[in-house]
Write a structure and sequence with these properties.
This protein is of the alpha+beta class. The protein contains 8 helices and 18 strands. Its EC number is 2.7.7.23.
Length: 309
C-alpha cells in the first residue's frame, strides 16, 4: 500500500529493480485514501485558494483500499489466497510470511492475529496490546495515561507492556465479511503543522496548527471472534526505522546494527567463529531464520561480510 504522495516513486523503484525477482504480475500496488485536514474548531484547512489541504488516512486505510483497488478480489479470485500477512514498512527485521506466526494463527483457528514484543521501557513510543471491555485492542502510546504506562505488577513487570509492532495476520473471510461491513468511521486525531492559505499565499507554520484525521489498522481487532497474540524477541524481529541517520534510537544505524548482530548470532549458533569488526548480513535467500548454515561450522567468518550464496 502506498499513498498518493509516494505512489509513482515507489512503483518506479520496483520497476527499476525488476521487482526484486518477484515478477511484475506478483506485485500489486494500491493507494490508501486521503482525508481533509481541519482546524481544532473543525473547519477545513485550505492549502491554496482552490485546494483543500489533504493527508493520507492512516494505515487503517488499508481495508477500504484493498476493496476499492481490486486487490482483495485479485487475491481471492485470481490467486486463491485465504490468509494475509500485513506488516509495517519501517521494520528492518520483519519476517514476511513467517511460517511460525502463520502456523500458530492457523493452529489456533484465529481470524486475526498480532505479533508483539515487550516494551523496552515504560514510555517507548509503541502502542500496547490490551483488552477493553473484554475485547482485544491496541492503545496507542499517545493515548495511554502516564499512570497506565508506568503501572507494574507484583514482580515489577509492566502491566501494559505488550508492545504492538504492526505485524498482523488475517483471514480474507474476516476482512471481507466482518471488517469491511462493520469497521465504521473511527478516526484518531494527530495534531500537526499543516500548510494553510492566509488569503494571499501558502504559509508553512512553525507549530501545530491543525488536525490530521487517521484510521489505525488495529481498530478492527475488537471485531475478531478469535484473536491471538504471538510474542517475539525484539532482537530477532523488531528494528524500527523512524528517525534519521545518527539518531541514538530507531534509526537506519541502529537497524543495521541489529541486523548484523542477529546474523552474527546465527553464525555463532552454527559453530562459526566471528573475526574482526564490521557489519554482517546474511541474505534471506541463504537463511530465513538461522537455518541452513551448517556448512559454516568450524569456519572463521571475517567481518564485514555479506553472505549471499
Amino acid at each position: 500500500m502506498t499513498s498518493p504522495i509516494n505512489h509513482k516513486a515507489t512503483a518506479a523503484y520496483f520497476e527499476e529493480k525488476d521487482y526484486f525477482g518477484l515478477g511484475k504480475a506478483n506485485v500489486f500496488f494500491f493507494e490508501q485514501g486521503m482525508l481533509p485536514c481541519v482546524t481544532e474548531e473543525g473547519k477545513i484547512i485550505m492549502e491554496t485558494a482552490g485546494k483543500v489541504s489533504m493527508a493520507p488516512d492512516g494505515n487503517g486505510g488499508i481495508y477500504p483500499s484493498l476493496l476499492s483497488s481490486g486487490a482483495l478480489d485479485d487475491m481471492e479470485k485470481s490467486r486463491g489466497t485465504k490468509y494475509l500477512h500485513v506488516f509495517s514498512i519501517d521494520n528492518a527485521l520483519v519476517k514476511p510470511a513467517d511460517p511460525g506466526f502463520l502456523g500458530f494463527c492457523l493452529e489456533q483457528g484465529a481470524d486475526c492475529g498480532n505479533k508483539s514484543t515487550w516494551k523496552s521501557h515504560a514510555h517507548e513510543k509503541v502502542g500496547v496490546v490490551a483488552l477493553r471491555a473484554g475485547e482485544p485492542c491496541v492503545v496507542e502510546y499517545s493515548e495511554i495515561t502516564q499512570e497506565m504506562a508506568e503501572r507494574t505488577d507484583d514482580q515489577g513487570r509492566l502491566v501494559f507492556g505488550a508492545g504492538n509492532i504492526c505485524n498482523h495476520f488475517y483471514t480474507l473471510d474476516f476482512l471481507r465479511n466482518t471488517v469491511l461491513p462493520n469497521m465504521g468511521n473511527l478516526y484518531h486525531i494527530a495534531k500537526k503543522k499543516i500548510p494553510y492559505f492566509d488569503g494571499q499565499t501558502t504559509v508553512k507554520p512553525d507549530s501545530n496548527n491543525g488536525i490530521k484525521l487517521e484510521t489505525f489498522i488495529f481498530d478492527v481487532f475488537p471485531l475478531s471472534k478469535n484473536f491471538c497474540v504471538w510474542e517475539v524477541e525484539r532482537s530477532q524481529e523488531f528494528a524500527p526505522v523512524k528517525n534519521g541517520p545518527g539518531s541514538p534510537s530507531d534509526s537506519p544505524d541502529t537497524a543495521r546494527s541489529m541486523i548484523s548482530n542477529m546474523c552474527q548470532t546465527w553464525l555463532t549458533a552454527a559453530g562459526a567463529t566471528i573475526a574482526k569488526e564490521g557489519v554482517c548480513e546474511i541474505s534471506p535467500l541463504v537463511s530465513y531464520g538461522g537455518e541452513g548454515l551448517e556448512s559454516y561450522q568450524g569456519q572463521t567468518v571475517e567481518l564485514p561480510c555479506h553472505l549471499s550464496s
